[in-house]
Every structure is written in C-alpha cells, then in structure tokens.
Amino acid sequence: MDTPVILKIFHKGKMKEYFVKPEGEMHTDLGIIKLDELKSKNFGDKISSHLGAEFVIQKPRAPDFFIHAKRSGAPMMPKDIGVIISNTGLCSSDNVLDAGTGSGILAIYLGEIAKKVVTYEVREEFVEIARNNIALTGISSIECRHGDIVEEISKLDEKFDVITLDTISAARVIPYVPDVIFPGGFLATYSPFLEQAKEIREAIGKTDFIEVRTIETMEREISFTDRGTRPATTRVGHTGYITIARY
Ligand SMILES: C[S@@+](CC[C@H](N)C(=O)[O-])C[C@H]1O[C@@H](n2cnc3c(N)ncnc32)[C@H](O)[C@@H]1O
Questions:
Q1: What per-residue confidence (pLDDT) applies to 234?
Q2: Which of 44, 96, 167, 184 has the maximum number of C-beta atoms within 10 A of its C-beta?
Q3: Residue 23: which domain range?
C-alpha cells in the first residue's frame, strides 16, 4: 500500500491511534516504527515497533479523516452529517453542490456516497488545506473550487440533486438555489445560531420550496463501568441547527 493508513494499538486500557503515510520512521512511546514496511503489508496486518509493540493497520474511512485531517476551522460533526445524509437520501447517482468547504470533512463524507461533489471555499488558504485532505482520501469525484458561493452560484450552468450550505452566507445564497437544483432535490443548511437558522427560513420562505423543517440532533454516549451504566458525564454539547428543504 502507498496511501495513508491508520495504526492502532490498545495499551494500558486506552486506544492509541496514528494517521501515517507509508514512508520514513515514526517515534512513539511504544518504540520506533519503520513506516516503509507498510508498503508490503495489507489492511488488517500488524506492524511492530522496535520494542515489539504491535499495531494493527486499518484503511482510513471518513470518520478517521474527521479526527486526523488538517483543520482550517470547525468541521461538521459526524452526527450532523448523518442527519443530512439520511434526510436528503443522498445516493450514488447524485450531483452535490457544497459550500463552504472548510476542512472538507462534509465534502469527504458526501463524496464517499455521491456521484460528484462540487464544493466552494472563499478563502484560498482553506482551499489548499481542503484539497490536500481530499487528496489523502483518494476520492476523485470531489472538485474543490476557490470562490465566493454568493457570486459563483448565479454563474453555474450545472444542476444538483442535493445542495449543502455550511456558511454564514447561506441566506444570501438561497434565492439562487432554485436555478441550480433539480425538482425534488434537497437543500440542507447548517447554522450554529438560531438567528441564522431564522434568516435561512425567511429566505426559503421567499422561494418555491415545498417542504422545510429545522432540526437539532443530540448525541449521548453511554458509559459502561463497574459502578454502573449511564450516559457519559462528558458529552458533545450544542453544534448547530440543520434546515432541510425540498424543492
Ligand atoms: C464552518 S466552515 C465549513 C466546514 C465544513 N463543512 C467541514 O465539514 O469541514 C465554513 C466555511 O465557509 C467558508 N465560507 C464563508 N463564506 C463563504 C462564501 N461566501 N463562499 C464560500 N465559502 C465561504 C469559510 O471560509 C469556512 O471555511
């Protein structure tokens, strides 16, 4: 293999993991790993450090990129991405328009499923980070374009099945969405604040969307200990409001 991999080891009651390219050496507290040796290994095999610690080799998937990809800002959380995928019914024949790209995490999840994802990011330095992250996934159907979606959307001559907007500019983009969305297609927006969600609802209200709803998802991990079983006392707090509208 010559693509990045995940190395995992369960040590002293904790999972340690590393996202590495198969080149050079990596120094860990469990010894030095010769990463070149990965080239002759398969996923599921183990690689040993010079101290004999054995790390299992895994193929990175979208949740691994959420954890290990370089971040330009806060990426969308998997729990919210799941809601977008399930409520839009995203499928392998879909063309998707996404903005802003940010670190590219939502685009990567969407790109794992859809036929094509076109994603816009206004900040050039973020475009570079996102393009690098996307390149590491090996997904070839995601096109990361540099541009302001508010200006670019009216220049598009393509149409999309699903449009995702995770940008402060979403309400200003919505008036142009009917020109680039297929009938029956879905728009999904993400807003950290209710005020933004309200602006989005108002913008949607001025267009011909047929259905619209705004939701928030809560995630509670369950903790299993000798003392008992209950929701974990540390948890993911508020993330954002998702508005889903169908054209
Ligand atoms: C919260 S981040 C998106 C995170 C992304 N969904 C992810 O999962 O990694 C919002 C991004 O939108 C970008 N942005 C803001 N306004 C924009 C616009 N008008 N056009 C394109 N990108 C924009 C910002 O630069 C920022 O990178």
A1: 84
A2: 96
A3: 5-58
pLDDT at position 1: 72
167 lines ligand 1 (CB under 6 A): yes
Question: Residue 237: its pLDDT value, please?
Answer: 87
Asked whether the bond before 100 is cis by omega within 30 degrees of 0, the reply is yes
If asked whether residues 50 and 106 sit together in one domain, one would say no
Q: Ligand 1: distance of its center to the CA of 104 in Å?
A: 9
Give the Å distance between the CA of 57 and the centre of ligand 1: 33
pLDDT band at residue 31 under the 50/70/90 scheme: very high
Atom in ligand 1 nearest the alpha carbon of residue 130: 9
pTM of the model: 0.95
CA-nearest of 12, 3, 13, 11 to 64 is 3
**Strand boundaries in 66-180, DSSP class E:** 95-99, 116-121, 142-146, 160-165
- Say if residue 50 is in the same domain as residue 144: no
What average pLDDT score do residues 117-134 get? 98
Pocket test residue of 155, 167, 242 for ligand 1, highest count of atoms within 8 A of CB = 167
Asked whether 108 lines ligand 1 (CB < 6 A), one says no
